[in-house]
Write a structure and sequence with these properties.
Helix 3 packs parallel to helix 5, helix 6 runs antiparallel to helix 9 and helix 7 packs antiparallel against helix 8. This protein is an all-alpha fold. The protein has 3 domains: about 100 residues, Four Helix Bundle (Hemerythrin (Met), subunit A) (Up-down Bundle), CATH 1.20.120; about 90 residues; about 80 residues, no CATH class. The protein has 13 helices and no strands. This is SbsC C-terminal domain-containing protein. Keywords: Signal.
């Protein structure tokens, strides 16, 4: 019976890896976040461009917490929305901010958001994805190619390389996030900014080169480590779990002694590792939320499958 109980729990944990509610949640989350974009448009139209960009900056921060809900529903939508975000960031690079360009960029972003919220996914077309095997090292090499292209004033080639980087990023972003959340955030921001700089008329080659250099400097140190390990899984488990379990009750659960505490932690960590194996289909934040659920469940003695009768 004890073995049967363990098997049942493993099956249950694996079932949790199916993102059954991600789509609806993504639409709801984006609808709330897009309220800031709509308000930003109104502020920009009234001449308050600095206040408008502050609201966009708030949207950009919120985006990092909701993007997986969009990505799991439509990779094309995810890419187009991030591209529109890059255009807004680019519009604010020059000081003073060009009111007309900022309004146009904010309206384009709102239109993409509205299409996703209303379920008009056909409007996004097909997602661009890499057909090659992707690693952090391969992305670092691609950035080095882009640097050389910019030095030779091959702006079309550099633009194509950045687009390839953005498409390839989807396959590797989970591993980057596991190793460094700051590098992940920088790459998410700078990829769209670099593409916008190289798409501008006229092309802003100096800023583009600085942006590419910044990405290369940040991503380079991670190139020697391109796969998940049990240590990485444990790090995710503890970081996400303890972040949520910051209250007194959570600490008592984690620190309290029991006869199967080691087994609980082993099972929880194992579940993180199993979930991470399907990272390409299941975004990292979604994996982390499921891991936290499994961790909380296993942390309670009454639910422990290894506990003696």
């Amino acid at each position: 019976m004890r073995k049967v109980g363990i098997i049942c729990w493993i099956v249950l944990l694996l079932m949790l890896s199916i993102p059954v509610y991600a789509s609806a949640k993504g639409e709801d989350d984006l609808k709330k976040a897009d309220a800031d974009i709509q308000q930003a448009i109104q502020l920009a139209q009234s001449g308050k461009v600095e206040d408008a960009f502050k609201l966009y900056d708030k949207f950009q921060t919120n985006w990092l917490t909701i993007e997986d809900g969009i990505k799991v529903t439509s990779l094309a939508a995810y890419q187009k929305i991030e591209g529109a975000m890059g255009e807004v960031s680019f519009a604010a690079l020059k000081q003073p901010i060009d009111q007309t360009k900022l309004i146009e960029a904010l309206k384009a972003l709102h239109e993409f958001n509205a299409n996703f919220i209303s379920g008009k996914l056909d409007a996004f077309g097909q997602a661009g994805q890499s057909s090659e095997k992707v690693s952090i090292a391969s992305l670092v090499a691609l950035l080095e190619t882009t640097q050389e292209q910019l030095k030779q004033s091959n702006f079309e080639g550099a633009k194509a390389s950045i687009q390839k980087l953005r498409s390839s990023w989807l396959d590797i972003e989970g591993i980057v996030l596991t190793q460094s959340s700051s590098v992940y955030t920088l790459m998410e921001r700078d990829m769209v900014t670099a593409y916008a700089l190289l798409s501008a008329e006229p092309i802003n080659s100096k800023e583009a080169a600085m942006t590419v250099d910044r990405m290369h400097e940040a991503l380079g140190p991670l190139a020697g480590k391109t796969s998940y390990t049990m240590l990485d899984a444990t790090t995710i488990l503890l970081r996400e779990g303890l972040e949520a379990l910051h209250g007194d009750y959570g600490w008592r659960i984690f620190c309290g002694s029991s006869r199967c505490s080691k087994q609980r932690l082993l099972l929880g960590t194992g579940f993180v590792w199993i979930s991470s194996l399907s990272e390409k289909e299941t975004p990292s934040w979604t994996v982390n939320r499921r891991c936290f659920f499994a961790f909380t469940l296993l942390a309670n003695d009454s639910f422990c499958p290894l506990k003696s009768a």
